[in-house]
Write a structure and sequence with these properties.
InterPro entries: Ergot_Alk_Oxidoreductase, Ergot_alkaloid_biosynthesis, NAD(P)-bd_dom_sf. With about 280 residues, the chain is of the alpha/beta class. It has helices spanning about 10-20, 55-60, 75-90, 110-120, 140-145, 165-175, 195-205, 215-225, 230-245, 250-255, 265-275; strands at about 1-5, 25-30, 40-45, 65-70, 95-100, 125-130, 150, 160, 185-190, 195, 210-215, 260. An eight-stranded parallel sheet has the order 3-2-1-4-5-6-9-12, with helices on both faces. A two-stranded parallel sheet has the order 7-11.
Length: about 280
Amino acid sequence: MSTLITGGTGQTGLKLAHLLHEANQPFLITSRSGAAPKPYKSVRFDWLDSATFENPFLADPTINRVYLIGPPVDDMVTQIKPFIDLAVTKGVKRFVLLSASQLDKGDPAMGKVHEYLVDIGVEYSILRPTWFADNFTRIFITSIRNEDHIFSVAKDGRIPFVSTQDIAQAAFDALLAEKAPNNEPYVLGPVLYSYEEAAELLTEILGRKIFYKRRTEAEHRQFFESFGLPKGYAELLVSMELKVGDGSEEAFFNIEARKKIIGKESLRDYLLASKEAFSS
C-alpha cells in the first residue's frame, strides 16, 4: 500500500515526500511536468487535464492514500471531484486535504472539496493551516530584498504563522494513522505575531529596518492577480486576510486543544534559518 502526493513538488508536498522517504514508506509524486527530484518516483498529473488522472494508478496500483492539494481555481470541487471518484474506484480509502484555517465545510474552494469528502464516506483529514511562515521567503522575498518592507491588508491582526515542515508532518501523521482520523484540525505555529511584529523580527535578524505597509484591498487583489490567480480566487485570499484583522487567526490559536495541531517552528525560528535568503 502506498501514498499519492498531488502537488508533490510544491511547498508541503515535497516536504511530505522527504518524511515518507525517511520512514521507508512507499509513495508516488505527481507534477504537471511529470518530473520530481531524485530519487523520488513521479508521474505527470494536471488538475486541468482529466486525461492525466489515471496516470498515478497505472504507475502504482497499490495506492490507497492520497494527499490532496487543489488547483488555485474558483470552482475547485469541479476539478477535483472526478479524480476523487476515480481514486475511490481504484481502492483509495483515505484522503488528506490541504485546506485553510478560515474555510469551513461547504465554503468556497477547498471548503466544497471538504464537504464532498465527508459526504461520500471515505476516511479523511482536512488540514486547516493558518498563514505560512514560508510566505516570507516567497511572497515577500522581493519586497524585503529590494524595498525593505512586507505588506498586507490584515491591519494589526495576529497570526500563529506555521511552517510548511510542520504542515507536512501533520499530513504524514494523518496519512499513516492506524485509525481513520475523520477530523479537520487547525494547523498553527506556536507563537502569535502581527505583521508589524514580524517586521520588527526581520529588522532584528537582518540588521536593517524592515517596514510593514498596510495595503488597500484593491492593491492586494491586484498583487495576487499578478501571480496569474483568477479574480475570484484573488478576492477570496484578500477577504481571508481582512478577517485576520478582525482576529480570526488569534481565535483559532486559542481554541480548545483537541481541535488544533501546534507545530514546533515559530516564525522567529523560520526567519533565522532563512536569513541568507533575504540578502541574496
